[in-house]
Design brief:
Elements lengths: L8 E4 L3 H13 L3 E4 L7 H6 L2 E2 L3 H6 L3 E4 L4 H10 L1 H4 L3 E4 L5 H13 L3 E7 L12 E5 L2 H11 L5 E4 L6 H28 L5 H29 L9 H17 L5 H15 L10 H6 L2
Parallel strand pairs: 1-2, 1-4, 2-3, 4-5, 5-6, 7-8
Antiparallel strand pairs: 6-7
Length: 293
Amino acid sequence: MSRSNQSPVTVLGLGMMGTALATAFVRNGNRTTVWNRSANRADALVAQGAVAAPGVREAIAASPVIVACVSTYEVLNGLFADAADELKGKVVVNLTSGTPEDARAAADWAERHGVRYLDGAIMAVPQMIGLPQALIFYAGPQELFAGHEELLKPLAGTGVYLGEDTGVAMVYDLGLLSLLWSSLAGYFHAVALVQSAGVSAEAFTPFAAGWIEHVISPALAQSAREIDSDSFETEVSSLDANRAAIEHLVATSRQLGLDSGLSTSIQTLIERRVAQGFGNHSLASLVEAFKQG
């Protein structure tokens, strides 16, 4: 499709992710205006066909849709406060990382200033932007997403609309990051354990990958069913059984001089639920322990 037939768009923020977003629009043929506080960040994009705006106001004025990806919501709020008049009547798709409350506060500001607002969370690294495996979550007014879904398609193979609550995209984002960090931390702790016996990470990892594929991944769907049905009683791998097993993990970690913080945190959650009389519940019951803070 020719460039003239594609919708114009402005990208604010040209860090690694913002640059990847702008590049995807340029390659799709969108008339892409870009702005960054450090103007030289735009040079490579201009060479590809983007237009560099001299300031935020000019960048916003250039397009009906503004895609923002800056370092923090605080930075975003400052930029928008200085350009409130130019933003009136525009569509903002904010892909800045933050908290659910950051997103909801930004949406409230937008509504008060006549700005139509979608919030989003990018579940990909910059190198994945524009590829089929890239995922972006969106939240905000349904009709606003529906009206701009086609414009946003060049950014990710999968764009998922989550609902009207503007903060829900960040909830999903943080939920998946929690899973990432805790899973990798568990793997790193496991490697530290096996290294104490002279086993290399490379030798151990095929067994870890198989454990994830055949034990942990299937447990996710089973746990989801138990959580949603509030039915945790089990005769297989109960909290009582896991309580005894994790004592061995904590004791061994301490004997080897390893940091046992991750293991003891899990042990504390298990012991709390057992003390509350739920020893015959599955590990999925720990979701209730997390809710108790």
